[in-house]
């Protein structure tokens, strides 16, 4: 028998909480967003919870980042990796804003084209992809027009 275990994770006074991340994806999101490097630069706290019990998902991950606002690009990364994630903004210890992420129509330089002959894998050209299907997430390279999904979607990790 499994019982629901309520979770607590370091509370932050201001910043953002990324909740409802599919279990196992929090570290990838952190690496693609470069949160580790960011924390080293700013001195702010990042709390990452992995494999928590969830009422809506079976298991989930959660990320809290002190004093961070997500840029549009960062939000897009979260939406690609965790399409049902929710983002909460925390100010003075309270949630002031909460919304679901939205999978974007195109993707910038955060994914690697799987075609090894693609120009992006040989020259300093920033990658660009179109989202041709949101479920399952399917991308098409702007340059070589290769379409790919699932495990072929590899992200550029910053740290
Ligand atoms: Zn390509």
Strand content: 35-45%
**Could you state the oligomeric state of the chains shown?**
single chain
Approximately how much helix is present in the residues? 10-25%
The whole-angstrom Rg is 17 Å
The pLDDT mean sits at 93
Low-pLDDT segments: none
Strand-helix topology:
Blueprint: E1 15-22, H1 26-33, H2 35-42, E2 46-53, E3 59-66, H3 72-81, E4 86-91, E5 94-100, E6 106-107, E7 111-112, E8 129-134, E9 137-141, E10 147-149, E11 154-155
Antiparallel strand pairs: 1-3, 1-4, 2-3, 4-5, 6-8, 7-11, 8-9, 9-10
Zinc ion binds at residues 113, 115, 118, 120, 141, 143-144, 146.
Give a structural overview.
The protein is of the alpha+beta class and 159 residues long. It has 2 domains: 15-100, 2-Layer Sandwich (Alpha-Beta Plaits); 106-155, Aspartate carbamoyltransferase regulatory subunit, C-terminal domain (SH3 type barrels, Roll). Helix content is 16%, strand content 36%. It has 3 helices and 11 strands. It has helices at 26-33, 35-42, 72-81, and strands spanning 15-22, 46-53, 59-66, 86-91, 94-100, 106-107, 111-112, 129-134, 137-141, 147-149, 154-155. The strands form 3 sheets. It has a 5-stranded antiparallel beta sheet, with helices on one face. It has a 4-stranded antiparallel beta sheet with strand order 6-8-9-10, covered by helices on one side. Strands 7-11 form a two-stranded antiparallel ribbon. Helix 1 (26-33) packs antiparallel against helix 3. The model has no long low-confidence stretch (mean pLDDT 93).
